[in-house]
Design a protein that fits this description.
The structure holds 2 protein chains of 2 kinds.
Chain A lengths: L1 H9 L3 H6 L7 E2 L2 E2 L1 E2 L10 H14 L9 H21 L6 E4 L2 H16 L5 E5 L8 H10 L2 E5 L9 H7 L4 E7 L11 H10 L4 E4 L11 H4 L3 E5 L10 E5 L1 H6 L10 E4 L4 E3 L13 H17 L1 H19 L5 E3 L9 E6 L4 H10 L2 E2 L1 E3 L4 H6 L5 E5 L6 H18 L1
Helix pairs in contact in A: 1-12, 3-11, 4-11, 5-6, 12-15, 13-15
Chain B lengths: L2 H13 L4 H14 L13 E3 L4 E9 L2 E8 L2 H14 L4 H5 L5 H4 L14 H22 L1
Antiparallel strand pairs in B: 1-2, 2-3
Helix pairs in contact in B: 1-3, 2-3, 3-6
The chains are: A alpha/beta, B alpha+beta.
């Protein structure tokens, strides 16, 4: 219980924070909700909900094209959100492209590389712990261009084999695209080393920061990363929007992803010239309200302090792992030295789906299944896992409920 | 026994349970007790893939009745599959194709059939109906 006590010195008013998330104040199947599926999506504070409501009730209008007051107000709010998100990750605002989310952002880069930079016999490096969103776009690109997809192996404790990675770098590699934090294992990858090693070989790097954005400070310029993809809904913002960060030089070089709307400079039937980045990549009417909500979400996290959140979640993760390990039949999948609060486990021979169903009956929301990382499940020879993933509003009481719930599930399953 | 009678029997069985734990204990036991499928039918062709658990389903005509056997790698799913089979197996393709399945709602386990990618039960019910429609069409052609 030392950890729980220490937690209170970092985050003394967690109940006040919980009260800012209306959805948490409910019962599921007759029990107060314990929400531990934050790796899938996070809940939204009133600050985000209010910002989105204000847009629709006060100044709903299209952006970048109206001279009237509402349109100007909407444009200002939309671009302010871009500045907020850029500041949150230490980027210039013109390096931040609004996308539909992480998957869309990765597809944007993969499509650009497929068109301009990838040729027969080239190589793309990903890792064995990637989400399908960072596998399939590169597979499609490699299949089309007859290039090779190379996969960094994952060790038994769920870390990347960095020696293998070093040996894979070479002149045929056109890009390295890896996750910062594994959504399944919770592993925090040594991204600084990954980037430095790739750059030493003249290779750009894309980081999938979907699972990092809410849990760790991100400074893209300090990292010197070339591309970074993330989703708003993983950081207390709305779904359907995310960003691609790209170094200005790369955004200039990448071809447009889609055509239409604000991505043009001038169109004739003979030839179209394109707007400067980031608008070059934002075809059509964007998700305006969602962008404004996203801006409110990063403002909320900024106000709380991402370093403080990180420290709190670290202690909560340690507490959770220690408590889960008191269940004799429980086996953790992924025990990396540096890890975040996505905790995967199996209990005895029980199918994760059975455990998840019985936890749900007790009002405890966890994720079960392969977490869209099927190759990783094959690597650990399991059909899926139970995953509890933490956020800033979780408490040691939530963890205690989880542990008690797993014990009850084990008793029922026999 | 008709499909409706089978469902009403199951609903009556579940009414005696006091809380969700007893319901699930019963389903888990059902899942453990029922070897539902001949291993030779646990093929990829018979596999209904869900994100969460696997379900194998085999169908064959015996006389004018369609007989189903099934299995799952998750015991709760297997128990539920057992209930579905109890209701729909050994019925005519026409009756199966036209059946109104209401017992899962009535016993309070609707969440297992939510139309999400999270389980294969909805897919299994759909597959059973498709088999029935297929056999029904074949029988009309033969007549």
């Amino acid at each position: 219980m030392e950890t729980a006590t220490a937690k209170n010195t970092i985050w003394p008013d967690v109940e006040k924070i919980r009260n800012e998330f209306p959805i948490l104040q409910q019962s599921i199947n007759g029990n107060p909700l314990v929400y531990l599926d934050n790796g899938a999506t996070t809940q939204k504070p009133v600050q985000v909900i209010r910002a989105m409501q204000e847009y629709y009730t006060g100044y709903n209008s299209n952006v970048h094209r109206g001279v009237h007051t509402l349109s100007q107000k909407a444009t200002s709010a939309y671009e302010a959100a871009r500045h907020q998100v850029a500041a949150f990750i230490g980027a210039h605002h013109h390096e931040v492209v609004f996308t539909k989310g992480t998957t869309d952002a990765i597809n944007l880069v993969a499509a650009g590389f497929r068109k301009e930079f990838l040729h027969e016999g080239d190589e793309v490096i990903i890792s064995g712990m990637e989400h399908h969103s960072n596998i399939v776009p590169w597979q499609l690109a490699c299949e089309e261009k007859k290039a090779h997809l190379k996969v960094i192996p994952v060790t038994d404790n769920g870390e990347l084999d960095m020696n293998a990675y070093a040996s894979m770098l070479g002149p045929r590699v056109k890009i390295v695209s890896v996750t910062w934090i594994s959504n399944t294992l919770g592993t925090i990858n040594p991204v600084k080393d990954i980037i430095n090693m790739a750059h030493a070989a003249g290779i750009p790097v894309l980081l999938d920061a979907a699972q990092a954005i809410a849990h760790t400070p991100i400074k893209v310029h300090e990292l010197n990363v070339d591309f970074l993809a993330l989703s708003s809904h993983k950081v207390y913002g709305p779904t359907g929007i995310g960003i691609l960060y790209g170094k200005e030089s790369w955004l200039q070089k990448l071809p447009p992803y889609q055509g239409g709307g604000d991505m043009i400079k001038h169109v004739t039937f003979e030839k179209t010239t394109y707007a400067e980045p980031p608008l070059k990549f934002e075809a059509g009417t964007p998700a305006i309200c969602e962008a404004i909500g996203f801006g409110a979400a990063v403002a909320y996290v900024t106000q709380l302090g991402i370093h403080k959140i990180q420290a709190y979640e670290h202690q909560l993760t340690e507490y959770a792992i220690a408590q889960l390990k008191t269940i004799p039949e429980l086996r953790l999948i992924g025990e990396a030295k540096h890890r975040a609060g996505a905790i995967s486990f199996l209990v005895g021979q029980h199918h994760p789906s059975d455990v998840g169903v019985l936890l749900d009956q007790q009002g405890i929301a966890v994720r079960t299944g392969h977490h869209c990382t099927q190759p990783l499940m094959d690597r650990f020879e399991c059909p899926g896992t139970v995953r509890a993933s933490l956020a800033l509003y979780n408490t040691t009481a939530d963890i205690d409920r989880l542990v008690e719930g797993v014990r009850k599930a084990v008793t029922l399953l026999g | 026994m008709t499909i409706k009678e089978q469902q009403d029997n199951i609903i009556a069985d579940f009414e005696v349970f006091g809380d969700w734990m007893e319901k699930y204990e019963y389903i888990i036991q059902l899942g453990k007790d029922l070897p539902l499928i001949d291993p030779k039918y646990k093929t990829d062709d018979n596999l209904i893939r869900g994100c969460q658990s696997k379900v194998w389903l085999h169908a064959e005509m015996q006389g004018d009745k369609l007989v189903f056997t099934a299995d799952s790698d998750a015991v709760i799913t297997k128990g539920l599959v057992g209930l579905v089979i109890q209701v729909l197996s050994h019925q005519t393709p026409k009756d199966i194709a036209n059946a109104d399945i209401y017992f899962i709602d009535a016993i309070g386990l609707t969440s297992h059939l939510s139309p999400t990618r999270s389980n294969g039960l909805l897919s299994m019910l759909k597959q059973i109906k498709l088999y029935a429609i297929g056999y029904q069409a074949k029988s009309i052609q033969q007549n």
